[in-house]
Amino acid sequence: MFNLTLSELSQALSQGQFSSLELTQALLERIKRLDSQYNSFITLSEEQALLQAKAADASRAAGHATPLTGLPVAHKDLFCIQGIRTSCGSRMLDNFVSPYNATLVERLNQAGMVTLGKTNMDEFAMGSSNESSYYGPARNPWDAQRVPGGSSGGSAAAVAARLVPAATGSDTGGSIRQPAALCGITGLKPTYGRISRYGMIAYASSFDQAGPMTRSAEDAALLLQAMAGEDPLDSTCAVHPVPDYRASLNNSLSGLRIGLPKEYFAEGTDPEILQRVREAVAEFEKMGAQVKEVSLPNTQLSIPAYYILAPAEASSNLSRFDGVRYGHRCAAPKDLEDLYKRTREEGFGTEVKRRIMVGTYALSEGFYDAYYRKAQQIRRLIQQDFVRVLQDVDVIMAPVTPCAAFPLGEKNSDPVSMYMEDVFTLSLNLAGLPGMSIPCGFSGHLPVGLQLIGNYFDEARLLNIAHQYQQVTDWHQHTPANLSED
Ligand code: GLN
User: Does 125 contact ligand 1 (Cβ within 6 A)?
Assistant: First the structure.
């Protein structure tokens, strides 16, 4: 039962092979038994899960089942869930119990899903290794001495370790795609605004986007269907029709135009990864796709632009954590200034403080034009590169990461080498475009991801491309060798 996808589990439930309650209990038991190895969960919501599972079984018995009724899911710990701690991986929110549900949580609840708990993440989603979490790093199920990626590292590890069939993540600069690649699962970062951000704790509001992390493209389609769509509670959420994502999964790829950006295949990337990506592209050619080289000349400016803009937005978003309204408060403050200073000193970790300082500096008078405005101009250039290329091709294919999962501690003391992890992912967030990571083979014993980049609101096509690839390859079905199968 642990190896089944959402789609397979849905079928098993409707055939009465087991109930949602049995499935939920079995997974909760498995998490309690095995998660000390992975540290992928911060909080288990056992009581709520059992209630949801019973309710799901009842509505199935009454003939009201949706395709997601009774299926287990875990949420990255930045989605607010009423009555459950929502920590954002930070000491600052270690004691924060949300009084309301994020829209995404509400929608999956409405669809009948069962929430098993909240997954580990880099503090305030800042990081690429899950090592900045206040709760300690999550570990990669393919090799527990290595990182699962970040910031949605707990979600990726939990899905890869078969502790839950699917999870939610958020992607500000790569945080769904990069951990999906490093843990050998399927991750989708939709177009900016496709899914409501209401109740998702903000990092950089003009970049943040939620999305599904699953074992197959078909499952990602199933989840996106329930997650996507306009929301009166989030004015940046797109008013754009939501297509039937599963209806187009089996469309033929004959004539598909694939672009390979030459800047993404340059030196500096593990040659094994480039080789796996080329092999994947060759699979698509066999299915009738046409390949051509394209150029995204401003790619190398992505990292410097992102690391001005995202910290600038973060410094503003994180000013609300002041010890007054909610979250951590220092003991016995002398006066208001002391309250602010010590609360933030104690509540935030090193990486979060670094970002707040960089962002505040970039926004300060005298530096605004030199840094923030320039970075915004570069953001536009990067977006125009993509818009131009996507007039000639249907999809861009590229690596997700420059290297496979790296050892814990390797990049932690060197922020710039950690920031380089996002070199292939964050340009999409600058442009607001959708992207996917799907497993396409191995470098040694570690999974490699293939990145698919599409046009605005073209998630259906990305899912179609990914699903067709998963019909002719089985990389997405590989499981870590040492995984407990019972
Ligand atoms: N690694 C990037 C950062 O640290 C992206 C994180 C994310 O997408 N949330 O900002």
Answer: yes
| Residue 274 near ligand 1, beta carbon < 6 Å | no
What is the 116 CA–ligand 1 centroid distance (Å)? 25
pLDDT per residue as tens, the chain (486 positions)? 999 999 999 999 999 999 999 999 999 999 999 999 999 999 999 999 999 999 999 999 999 999 999 999 999 999 999 999 999 999 999 999 999 999 999 999 999 999 999 999 999 999 999 999 999 999 999 999 999 999 999 999 999 999 999 999 999 999 999 999 999 999 999 999 999 999 999 999 999 999 999 999 999 999 999 999 999 999 999 999 999 999 999 999 999 999 999 999 988 899 999 999 999 999 999 999 999 999 999 988 999 999 999 999 999 999 999 999 889 999 999 999 999 999 999 999 999 999 999 999 999 988 888 999 999 999 999 999 999 999 999 999 999 999 999 999 999 888 888 898 899 999 999 999 999 999 999 999 999 999 999 999 999 999 999 999 999 999 999 999 878 555
* Residues forming a β-bridge with 258: 291, 395
Say which DSSP state 395 is in. E
Which residues participate in catalysis according to the annotation? 76, 151, 175
Q: Residue 127 CA: which ligand 1 atom is closest?
A: 4
Best probe residue, ligand 1, of 417, 422, 423, 429 (max atoms within 8 Å of C-beta) = 422
Ligand 1: does its nearest atom lie under 6 Å from the Cβ of 430?
Answer: no
Task: From the CA of 171, give the closest atom in ligand 1.
Answer: 8
| Residue 159 CB-half CA count within 13 A | 35
Residues near 90 by beta carbon (within 8 Å), at least 6 away in sequence: 123, 124, 134, 347, 348, 349, 352
Cα separation, 122 vs 351, whole angstroms: 9
Whose alpha carbon is nearest atom 5 of ligand 1? 173
Closest CA to 173 of 400, 457, 448: 400
Note whether 296 and 385 are within 8 A (CB): yes
pTM above 0.90, yes or no: yes
Give Cα 17 distance to the centre of its chain. 31
Q: Ligand 1: which of 76, 426, 428 to mutate, judged by most atoms within 8 Å of the beta carbon?
A: 426
> Nearest 5 degrees, angle CA 85-CA 200-CA 33?
45
Residue found by looking up tokens 């990182």 in the block: 147
